[in-house]
Design a protein that fits this description.
- By secondary structure, the protein is mostly helical.
- The chain has one domain.
- The chain contains five helices and no strands.
- The longest helix has 21 residues, at 33-53.
Length: 88
């Protein structure tokens, strides 16, 4: 279960506890918002898109649309460094 400290978690993390735990573990190991953003965009989102829609990042238009659907489903417009900082 994700630990909530300063801020309430976004619907994205509340709805995806396994991802929340993965993000928190990675943060504790690397302690960098920049690296955490890269991890989410390079690992987490591609895996989610591939699992849900079988789309890979090299299918640029389909991939970007799928990412927007995923973040939109959780009440987000993007996953940016300031948001990641608040999650940590």
């Amino acid at each position: 279960m994700c630990i909530q400290k300063k801020h309430e978690l976004s619907p994205f993390l509340n709805d995806n506890q396994d991802i929340c735990q993965s993000v928190q573990q990675y943060a504790h190991e690397h302690l960098s918002v920049k690296f955490m953003c890269e991890y989410i965009h390079d690992i987490i989102l591609p895996n989610m898109v591939n699992e849900e829609w079988s789309v890979l990042p090299n299918e640029e238009e389909k991939y970007e649309a799928a990412v927007q659907r995923i973040v939109g489903q959780h009440g987000l417009t993007c996953i940016c460094p300031s948001m990641v900082y608040n999650w940590l």
